[in-house]
Design a protein that fits this description.
It contains twelve helices and twelve strands. It has 311 residues and is α/β, with parallel strands linked by helices. Strand 8 and strand 9 form a beta hairpin. Helix 3 runs parallel beside helix 5.
Length: 311
């Protein structure tokens, strides 16, 4: 799947992933009103509104981008109806040819990690048959429990030719409370990055190139991104924090390798809620998806301009 991601990036000329992180405050009022009228002000009504909102955005931007990243918490909050919409969103994006990165941040002891891996990346055994459950192409993984919490995901990646992005240096302001702590003279995030590189060497596609094991490094920490790019030359970096969290194209150039690959940049509310921003307010809520398309185009141009100056 890493090679499909690379192929999609080359096809669209856009190392961009749209974070499908729906919140009710982002969903246009007319969509909420229609679904509440049909299903009531219920969890089902909210979930159905999210589904229609997602579908509009996906339809508007799918030809411009290589991948999407639905954040599972935004669906879990609506219970079973929300999880059903999460699955519908994953399936619909795959029908559109998009690579799906499930932002699930899983990580647990070995047996539990194996169950998470089966449910999100692999297949679950039911009697004599095996079925994919959520069936994302990649997921995010928390490495805090160490190798025995990550190895089950790696094994599933090799079996299914899928991938993971391991949290290394996250974009949130308090990430440094743990991730920047010095251990034997190096910050913890660098130790994790070195381990990601080692895990990645165990999970290479037969044809070589980039590993099935990638890393998450926030756009809000460009200096750390530069360091991590050198530490993990064969790992794709998922870069959150663009746009609403303050990251911009000029901050991103060192996340990429000299081949122009090696990173994919996420923007969530900066795209999916673009119509609520002043620069896109002319679209109005009825044309929210067109505003999202305009925001993707602007992001693509910003990153391309920054990378061109680097070259």
């Amino acid at each position: 799947m890493i090679n499909k991601l690379i192929a999609n990036i080359k096809k669209t000329d856009a190392p961009i992933v749209v974070g499908l992180d729906p919140m009710m405050k982002f969903v246009p009022e007319y969509i909420k009103a229609a679904n509440f009228a049909e299903y009531g002000e219920t969890l089902l009504g909210a979930a159905e509104a999210v589904w229609q909102y997602n579908k509009g955005i996906i339809d508007a931007v799918c030809d411009l981008i290589p991948a999407v990243k639905p954040q599972i918490a935004m669906y879990e909050q609506f219970g079973i109806p929300g999880m059903t919409v999460f699955k519908r969103t994953v399936d619909y994006c795959k029908e559109k040819g998009l690579v799906v990165i499930g932002d699930v941040k899983r990580g647990d002891i070995g047996s539990t990690a194996a169950a998470y891996a089966a449910g999100h990346l692999g297949r679950v055994q039911v009697g004599s048959k095996a079925y994919p459950a959520f069936d994302e192409d990649f997921i995010t993984v928390n490495p805090y429990l160490g190798s025995d919490g990550v190895k089950p995901f790696m094994e599933t990646c090799v079996e299914e030719k899928k991938g993971i992005f391991v949290l290394v240096k996250t974009s949130n302001p308090s990430s440094g409370e743990f991730q920047d702590r010095l251990i034997d003279g190096k910050p913890l995030y660098q130790w994790v990055g070195e381990q990601v590189a080692a895990w990645g060497a165990e999970c290479m596609p037969a044809e070589g190139g980039y590993s099935y094991v990638g890393a998450v490094v926030g756009a809000t920490y460009p200096e750390q991104g530069r360091i991590m790019r050198k530490v993990m030359p064969k790992s794709f970096i998922l870069v959150p924090g663009y746009g609403a969290q303050g990251g911009k194209g000029a901050d991103l150039v060192d996340f990429f390798n000299e081949d122009g690959l090696g990173a994919i940049v996420n923007s969530s509310r900066g795209i999916i809620a673009a119509y609520q921003q002043e620069q896109y307010s002319r679209y109005g809520e009825q044309n929210y998806a067109d505003a999202s398309r305009a925001a993707v185009t602007a992001m693509k141009e910003d990153i391309a301009s920054a990378l061109a100056k680097r070259l």
